[in-house]
Amino acid sequence: MGDTDPDEPRESLESMWSSLLGFADRYAELGYGPLAAKLRAGGPPPPRVQHTPVIVDTDIGGDPDDAVALTCAARTLPELALVLTTDENGGGRARFARHLLDLHGRHDVPVVAGADLGNTRYYVVDGLTPDDVPAQPTDVLDAVRTVCASTDRHVRWVGMGPLTNLSAVLREAPELVDRLVVTQMGGAINYRDPARAEHNFRLDPDAARAVVATAADLLLVLSDVTFTEQIAISTESDTYRLLAAEGAPEWARLLRTHLDRWFTAFYPSSMQHDPLALATALQLPFVDFTRRRIALAPDARMSLDPEGHFAWVTTQADYPAFRSWLTEQLAY
């Protein structure tokens, strides 16, 4: 091993990938051709984005996993810079997000009410937001531009609902395409109901198709990985008991009430799709992903397609490690 200079700048992963690909190409005739092909097919590694601003785009107010994810972000991410709501319900989702952030002392994080798709079914937080919480602003593009202007680095976009807001930003501000590193909960290669697309994609198929075709750095946290009782919260889970414990803080009591309403109205558990998407966006080590070419049908059903668009997609997760992480984020 040769001498090293501790003051020499560390080579980036992107640079190392490029150097290795160049080496494999130069010596392809010596047997490195397959390595070059694999490197080129896999593409460069995702950019390093630790400590860069975070935008959360959420349909909070339905399945409580959004509220749990926003709680994790509010409590542990000083980089949380903006919360957008999508699939709005008359501004109620944005007001609820504002209330939850305020309970965590995150008055510094603006909330903007985004696209309203006219859906009202998955909304269980009626009456949980105090009347004195005002309606939130509605200019999504201006808010996103403000975050991007605050840094010369990438900005992390964590999508937890339909892709309507993101599609509009990429369409109306193409200069931001290369600035946003997108992690989106949504899509499925082997969806449990093959007759339709995954929930977040099917609520706005055109937006999903536009994002897959346009986003420069896109990582999809697929339902194939997130739809499992191994990461569900129910009344029997330790996480629920923590939130329901005597003396729990107000934010925990709010989450517990939100969960109870969901259990009564829809399902006896809440799979934590969106906290897992947040963990993936934070590049935590218990989520694996790979680069694939994907295509979306007109209704946004997803398939692998050698002529499709490149995207990173999740392949598996260490569920016990994720559950431990989630419990740590919610401890008080």
Folded structure, characterized:
One of its GO terms (molecular function) is purine nucleosidase activity. One of its GO terms (cellular component) is cytosol. Residues 54-291 form the Inosine/uridine-preferring nucleoside hydrolase domain. InterPro entries: Inosine/uridine_hydrolase_dom, IUNH, Ribo_hydro-like. It holds the Pfam family IU_nuc_hydro. The chain is of the alpha/beta class. The chain has 2 domains: 13-42; 54-330, Ribonucleoside hydrolase-like (Inosine-uridine Nucleoside N-ribohydrolase, Chain A), CATH 3.90.245.10. 39% of the residues lie in helices and 17% in strands. The protein has 13 helices and 11 strands. It has helices at residues 13-26, 33-42, 65-76, 92-103, 140-149, 164-172, 199-202, 205-214, 223-226, 238-244, 250-265, 273-281, 319-330; strands at 54-58, 80-85, 111-113, 155-159, 180-185, 217-221, 232-233, 270-271, 287-296, 302-304, 309-317. The strands form 2 sheets. Strands 3-2-1-4-5-6-11-9-10 form a 9-stranded mixed beta sheet, with helices on both faces. It has a two-stranded antiparallel ribbon with strand order 7-8. Helix 1 runs antiparallel to helix 2 (33-42), helix 6 crosses helix 8 (205-214) and helix 10 packs across helix 11 (250-265). It is globular. The model is unreliable at 1-6 (pLDDT under 50).
